[in-house]
Design goal:
5-stranded mixed sheet, 5-stranded antiparallel sheet, Dna Topoisomerase Vi A Subunit, Chain: A, domain 2, alpha+beta, 26 helices, DNA Primase, Chain A
Length: 590
């Protein structure tokens, strides 16, 4: 959700109807107090996408995307926030020109214009330099792919680009701000950053050139040179090839992630259009989040050497952490995607992906077993300990069982021993039903909603229920971390505020949190909230599970006690807990 403490943004939101914004992309049908349509973020035949106008939010029950008007246009049109602001301000009739943010947008626009002009210049130069065209053809690139990615060439001259841009009327201020020239303090002048390099324009999601990568024709160093971070470009927050591949990514619900510009271009040339690459650095959390806007699945296809596989291991952790279903394709040692494509061709490479990709857990298991003496029991314990958090994080019991069997087979251990070791490593119970905040509750479903979601919706729509639950069991009992964060935010906003839910609309931040909030909002607007009896039953359930956990812990302590006095005290405490459990079972609460 967007922060609305900026009065200009607040005015835009107040003037706009989210239904009108969404209806430009989605065919909506009104049902009750909400609108329904086919989700624009994933393929579906039955409408699961809903818009709640009273809260100015949308939510999809299929892919769980959710947010406000800003996040909707950012996702559907591939815009960053500032671009979305400019678009929505125009629709709302809000003038940005005299605002500081408006001046900033104008400056960004001018820097992008400089980049666009530079891209055209580099592209025109390419065809005029024989050695550059020889390199292009030597890498197997055809003219269509050169045009698609608008490849170019920077002349081996110190001021060729700067002079060209100045002649075109661009000021040195904006040329410098684009990162295309660098200052020579000794001579009190500027020089072109890129010289004698094949040029790769970098586009944002809306198709504007925001930066460049440049590669030397020979083995000179540095092999690659990239635009420094500027006001319009951050290498941490963008992906090469995303603009060209975003529609294919949406349709396939899958990203093929490679390391370099040339790998990405060649993948596109061979028909793998859902391919993107990082920008000269290791994968970042921001890039993983960007991928998640377009797809739920990622296949990492990094080089087959040791460095590539180490980086694949690191990247898989980031992707899984962002909620992406992640697989890894291990290439033959010494090969990169470009080389393997050239050797095998499109269909053979497609089969290679299908037959050789592994889940992120299998990949990690393979990596962790390298160099270990698997005849050694301690080594087996270390391997189980290392993959234990990944297995515990799985939602499906079938998946967990699959990995237990896999570990049993790979480590030559009986399944029951693997299960016991996984349970020992887990922070919660062996069955994996314990959540991060230490509660043991089944994920009971009420229609399309879990008990957690029903409870949170009741808490946010009724302050009396919120206080009752908070005072009895606190507010960090939810299975999903985002729900605990929403409860904490409401708690902080409710103090001295007559309309805390409206303040929630203005203060929820972050893609995961706003999607969670959008889902809860759809339930808040549903008729028929939880009854007082249901709320009290829920409180008793949580209290019982917490006390049971302490009870089992005390029993284990008793087994180890030698001192009779300590044993007597502990036994008294356990009997007191037992009485409490009987009391709550009969319908009482603390």
């Amino acid at each position: 959700m967007t922060r609305y403490d900026d009065p200009v943004i607040r005015e835009i939101i107040d003037r706009l109807n989210i239904v009108d914004i969404v209806a430009e992309t989605v065919n909506l049908t009104r049902k009750g107090n909400r609108y329904w349509g086919l989700c624009p973020f994933h393929d579906e035949k039955t409408a699961s996408f809903t818009v709640t106008p009273e809260r100015n939010m949308y939510y999809c029950f299929g892919c769980h995307a959710g947010g406000d008007a800003f996040s909707f246009v950012m996702k559907t049109r591939g815009l960053d926030f500032k671009e979305a602001l400019e678009l929505l301000a125009g629709k709302a009739g809000v003038e940005l020109a005299n605002q500081p943010r408006g001046r900033e947008l104008d400056r960004r626009k001018r820097i992008i214009e400089v980049n666009q002009a530079a891209a055209e210049y580099y592209h025109q130069v390419l065809a005029k330099v024989p050695e550059a065209m020889t390199y292009i053809s030597g890498r197997g690139l055809d003219q269509d792919i050169v045009e698609k990615f608008h490849l170019g060439f920077a002349m081996d001259q110190w001021n060729h680009l700067e002079d060209y841009l100045l002649r075109k009327g661009y000021s040195q201020e904006y040329i410098k701000a684009s990162g295309l020239i660098k200052r020579n303090d000794r001579r009190n002048s500027y020089y072109d950053l890129f010289r004698a390099r094949i040029m790769f324009p970098i586009y944002n999601q809306s198709g504007s050139v925001i930066g460049f990568g440049g590669r030397v024709l020979d083995d000179g160093m540095p092999k690659y040179l990239n635009t420094p971070d500027t006001e319009v470009y951050s290498k941490r927050q963008n992906l090469y090839g995303l603009y060209q591949g975003k529609e294919a990514i949406r349709q396939s619900n899958e990203v093929l992630l490679v390391e370099g510009y040339m790998d990405c271009i060649r993948m596109h040339q061979f028909g793998f259009i859902n391919c993107v690459a990082t920008l000269g650095t290791a994968l970042t959390k921001e890039q993983a989040s960007l991928m998640h806007r377009y797809a739920e699945n990622v296949i990492i296809i990094y080089d087959g050497d040791e460095a590539g596989q180490r980086e694949a291991l690191r990247a898989s952790s980031i992707l899984v952490g962002e909620g992406l279903k992640t697989s890894v394709l291990t290439l033959p040692e010494g090969k990169d995607p470009d080389e393997l494509l050239e050797l095998s061709g499109k269909e053979e490479f497609r089969r290679y992906i299908k037959n050789n990709k592994t889940t992120h857990i299998e990949f990690r298991l393979n990596r962790y077993m390298i160099g270990e003496n698997m005849a050694d029991l301690e080594a087996k314990i270390r391997v189980i300990s290392t993959v234990s958090p990944d297995i515990k994080a799985l939602n499906s019991e079938l998946e967990k069982d699959f990995y237990v069997k896999l570990l049993s087979r790979r480590l030559a251990l009986e399944e029951n021993l693997v299960r016991r070791e996984l349970a020992r490593n887990a922070t919660g119970r062996a069955d994996g039903s314990r959540n991060k905040t230490g509660n043991y509750r089944d994920n009971i479903q009420y229609g399309n909603y879990s008990i957690d979601e029903k409870i949170l919706a009741a808490m946010l729509s009724n302050e009396e229920i919120f206080v009752q639950i908070r005072d009895a069991i606190g507010i960090r009992f939810f299975k999903q971390e985002e729900y605990s964060q929403l409860a904490e935010l409401y708690n902080s906003l409710a103090r001295g505020n007559d309309h805390p839910l409206e303040e929630m609309d203005r203060n929820v931040q972050g893609e995961a949190l706003q999607a969670a909030y959008a889902r809860i909002v759809t339930l808040v607007s549903e008729p028929g909230q939880m009854s007082k009896m249901e709320v009290e039953s829920f409180i008793r359930q949580v209290q019982r599970h917490r006390v049971k956990a302490r009870w089992h812990k005390m029993l284990k302590r008793m087994e180890k006690l030698d001192n009779h006095s300590d044993f007597k005290d502990l036994l008294g405490f356990i009997l007191e807990i037992d009485r409490f459990l009987k009391h709550t079972q009969e319908g009482g609460t603390v």
